[in-house]
Amino acid sequence: MADKQQLLSLLNAGDYDTLNTELLELHSAYARGQVDESVLETAFLTFAHAAPETTTGLDRWISTYPDMFVPFLSRSVHRWHIAMLIKGSRSIDALDDGQRASFDQLLSSANSDLFSAIERRPRLGIAYAWLIHIATVRGHRNDIEDLLNVGARSDPTSAVIHRRYLESLRPWMPGNPHTCLLY
Questions:
Q1: What are the backbone dihedrals phi and psi of residue 2, each rounded to the nearest 5 degrees, phi first?
Q2: Is 80 exceeded by the pLDDT of residue 172?
C-alpha cells in the first residue's frame, strides 16, 4: 500500500490508474477482513489536504473515472477538510456570513460526493461514517440515526460507522454552545 506522500504524488501526476488500483486493492483487503477499517480510513484521509493542486487533481480524477467510487470518496474528504479549516476551532455561530456560506457549500458538496460514492459502491461503510460526521458538524441531529441504521446495514462489520455515531453524541461537536446546555 502506498503511503500518503505516494498517493498525493500519484494524484498530482495524474496517475489515476495507479491511484484506483491502490485504493481499490485496499478496500478489497478490508472487505476480505485482511486489513482493519482504520487503515482504509487513514488512506482516504490522505486527501484531507488543502493545496490547490489537490482540488484540481481530484476534479480531474472524477472526470476521468466518473463511474468509480474511489475518486468521489477522496474528494469528499478533501472538501470536508477545507470546510474544517474555514471553521477552525470556532463555533459555527462565530463564522461570518461569507465563511458560513463557504463552510456550508463545501459540506454540501462533500455530502453529494459521498452519496455519489455510495451509488457506485453501496456497501461503503466508510462513506456512511463521513456522512454521520458531516451531519454532526452541521448540527443535523435528525439525520444521524438514519445514517447509522442504513450504514450499519450496508456494512455490518464497520466499526467506523459506530465510532462516528458515538462521537456525534458529544454535545460540543456541532460547534454550538447551546447544545452543551441541552446535554
A1: -70, 150
A2: no
